[in-house]
Amino acid sequence: MTTQTSAPDTPGARKADAPTGLIPLPEKAARALALGGSVLTIVSTFLAWTWTAEFPGDLTVYGYPGGLQVLVLIGAIVATLFALSSYGVRGLGWLAPSGPDAALKFATLATFATSWYTILSISTELGGLVNLEPGGFLVAAGSLVALAGALALPFQRPEPEPIDPDDSGWEKFKHGAAHQWETIKAVFSAGAPRPVRALPAYAEILIIVAILALGLTVFTYGIGTEYDEQFIGFLITAGLGFAALNKAGLIAHASQITSRHQSITTTGAFVAAALFPFTQTDDQYATLGVYILIFATVALGLNIVVGLAGLLDLGYVAFLGVGAYAAALVSGSPSSPFDVHFPFWAAVLVGAAASLVFGVLIGAPTLRLRGDYLAIVTLGFGEIFRITANNLDGTSGPDITNGSNGVSSIPNLDVLGFDFGAQHDMGGYTIGRFANYFFLMLIITAIVVLVFRRSGNSRIGRAWVAIREDETAALAMGINGFRVKLIAFAVGASLAGLAGTVQAHVTYTVTPEQYLFAGAIPPNSAFLLAAVVLGGMGTISGPLIGAALLYLIPNKLQFLGNYQLFAFGVALILLMRFRPEGLIPNRRRQLEFHEDAEAPTLLTKAGA
Amino acid sequence: MTTDTTTKDTSAAAPVPGETVLDARGVTMRFGGLTAVRGVDLTVNAGEIVGLIGPNGAGKTTFFNCLTGLYVPTEGEVRFKGEVLPPKSFKVTAAGIARTFQNIRLFANMTVLENVLVGRHTRTKEGFWSAVLRGPGYHRAEKASRDRAMELLEFVGLDHKSEHLARNLPYGEQRKLEIARALASEPGLLLLDEPTAGMNPQETRVTEELVFAIRDMGIAVLVIEHDMRFIFNLCDRVAVLVQGEKLIEGDSTTVQGDERVIAAYLGEPFEDAPGAEEVAEVEAAEAHAEAAAEAPADTPADADATAEAPADTPAEADADAAAEGAETTTDAAPGKENDR
């Protein structure tokens, strides 16, 4: 999905050949097919695709699209716009700063994949093609024609490497396959985007608002998907659609504009996130929202330790646990042996301080180790925390944590008379319990983002990165390696503890089994690390997006059941193979992993 | 802070009398049964450029590591401005000794400016809280650091590349950046470990000027190098380390004229006779050298002929320095090969 190579410049004689498409068709016909097919697809989404409402989403209605049809409609509209833009229609040039062809290919592919996925699931679930209405056949034909047209668009074919005549058959086969792979990569490759024109500040801010609104819409839609098919369709459309926008060069433009107004973007992102509960009619999806936010915040804290300082910590979830336990024990819960009820601000301080102490206690002896050894030792300490919490039950040890039953019935928070457990009405919107906690968690996330951004781009942050890059040289530059690493460890631990204090109240109960190394329910050490790696190490948005995906996918795809961890492993392997720098790469890491890629060498913003 | 120092002629680089910056006494470093450095004394005075040469495996880098706190000498002590060096390399940097590495060790994925800013670490104090709270003091310190770093980049001629990634710099500029990064820690003594390794003669000449400019800033410099022309042009004094022991120390002429140095570089007397025997042999050679030194006109030519394989008198070398010709390239290269 991530083809980074740009179309190679073929010199000399080959330039004379007119470039052709993957499917031999004249260029004009191909473009017309792509446009026509996309328009046909748009029309077909307003028709019925099946006769019965048994297939979820009710695709039986003429006149307006529903369920998966909406996704197909969006994909088809994007494809149509790119097709029109490739005709040079006035006013659409801005859509594709790096050429519309590759974007058109991805957009039609998105439409095709989503619509055919829908058609096939209708056929298999209801038993046979007879269940399709004409609209269903129309969308299948329309999206196929559009895709075929897009693939017939000319592209720059890569030069085949000369074959060694001594090669054995297998080697020749490998050679041929490699060339075909290069050709396919070339089909979907786009040129470098034009630099973005300087717009007046208000226009750029409006664009940022639009981008954030789009992000919020996509996220809200994804979180609110009601059945498996819709979520898979969402993943297909969103993934390939993102690729289309990326190939069009719009993502590059957007990131240029947002990096010009960083504070506005960050503030705007938080406003957009705060608007999320207002888009929900009941508390069901706010629950998901608050859990994602807890997971993402802890992942971001881990990113300080792993992404900036380069310390591989496999027991990070223990710090979340320490914070949660500390807050639970002073919350006035009946199963807590301490008969105290601290106000929330005090509980937060206790939780963060407990994690800080735990972090320093673990860090002081272990941070003298490097690399793999550190990873193994932190893994061990993470498990020690869980087992200790299990044993402090009054029989195996002193009665502090109530053993495997955990600390239960943690009361809801009450801050300045605002009861987090009750529903509140705000300007006509009902804000439920989980939405209340969502807002609280958002503040914690903001604190973590602030700490990450400011510390990352400062003397201490540079020292962290220097330690990660070359510890010996960093020491020779006068950096006290141990001290600096311990600070990173302690900061990461306290931030996780901070999130833990809220988590204890959200979940009502704190048990040792919530803080495993690896398990099916997300906040655990393996998933936290995966969120950081998936999203992109050393960035802010990376772990947030990685955590959202890693939480949503197992949550929405219930049918995966026991294969969840397996699918997760396969996904990680594929990611490591094709995009080791993560979904939202840090500029540094992108250059690190793709040395051959054109390196503009300039880092416009330092750190994150 | 400009690079207008064009002190090319070596005669101008006479030893400036100054306080002793570095004083290493009887430094011995043993790794198990192996003695890498044995009883080496070395002093470096303020405003002085001292060279350290020796064949491969002579213990130069080990000695360097003793000076930078990476190793703690088994015996003897190293004093910097009268204080015994602390046993941690970051404390040594804080005390005022900065170093570069033989194989460049930049922070490859940081920008050029960030690399130099990391060098400022010991001269700034802003901690974690200051970074998060960002009070006025933080902004002031950060700005001062950036200004100073830009000055240093200007000094080495890299200010126009401050936002580039260090990994993308060409080789010669990476060396310069490493020097700028070391200078950022405001050292009293700069240790350069083979600063011209892998450089062409033009780049070597530029580095030479850079080192003179650094000396003129009042920073003492200790250089390890294999390029004899570079060392003898540059240094006020040269110490020769052979098999962990200091053979001789003195100005270029003394060292170049010393038979033992020649012997050590050609490797004859030491081939398979380590220990006490070699000393006797060396002494014999020394006596021989003294006899040869009676004829003063001979000495420079002789020394050069041996230090660098193709004969090249100092006069010629000077002419080369002025003319800056392509012959220098061809001349220096075989000489260097011989050293290795």
Describe this protein's structure.
The complex is a heterodimer of chains A (608) and B (340). Chain A is mostly helical. Chain A is built from 21 helices and 4 strands. Chain A has 2 domains: 27-159 and 168-252, no CATH class; 282-516, no CATH class. In chain A, the strands form 2 sheets. Chain A has a two-stranded antiparallel sheet. Chain A is globular. Chain A starts with 26 loop residues before the first helix and ends in a 15-residue tail after the last helix. In chain A, 47% of the residues are buried. By secondary structure, chain B is α/β, with parallel strands linked by helices. Chain B has 14 helices and 10 strands. In chain B, α3 (112-119) packs parallel to α6 and α5 crosses α6 (171-183). Mean pLDDT of chain B is 76; it is low at 1-16 and 295-340. Classes of the chains: A mainly alpha (608), B alpha/beta (340). Chains A and B meet through α14, α15, α16, α17 and α21 of A and α2, α3, α4 and α5 of B.
